Amino acid sequence: DMVRANDGFDDFNSALDAVEVDEPRFPQRTKALAELYAGAEAALAPFEAVVDEVTQRAVGAGATAKKRVAPLKHVFRVLQKHATRVDGGEPASCETACDIVRGSVVCGGMAGLLAVLVALVALQAAGRIAIVRYKDRFGRPTAAGWADAMINFVVLADAGGAPLPAGAARHVCELQLVHATLLK
Known about the structure:
Radius of gyration: 16 Å
Distance between the termini: 14 Å
Mean pLDDT: 89
Helix content: 25-40%
Oligomer: single chain
Number of helices: 5
Strand order of the largest sheet: 1-2-5-4-3
């Protein structure tokens, strides 16, 4: 409730609802674990560059924003999650592992998170990324009370506009937009 009362909550959720999603690029383009990790390794640096850029843009807009990029998710954890999947998919098929390359941007308020979202949408409009899915857990928190916005995207081009190699450009990455209050 504290986050819902935060200035900019409604503006953020309206902007998130307006995001255009490139659904055909979701989920991963391969079910093969080795190919998936090759794409993840190729996508990690371009993903971090995007996270750096959107964080810097948010700070430039007056937000308190901090980025966190994690190392690649351990292969054992991916296999564990898929071996116990409940979505009816094959346990050895890893196409739904869209958080191998992952990170977050933490902001002190909803206005900062909106600035990050606006920066992501601008990169999409410029052809640098394609947003392929999002989850609005601010509007619909988890049963445990966690709330954030999770954005899955692929990085298509580098900062200069040069296209990325196919493996990197096909790999779906995950960025969580987190309100600092929820980390306490």
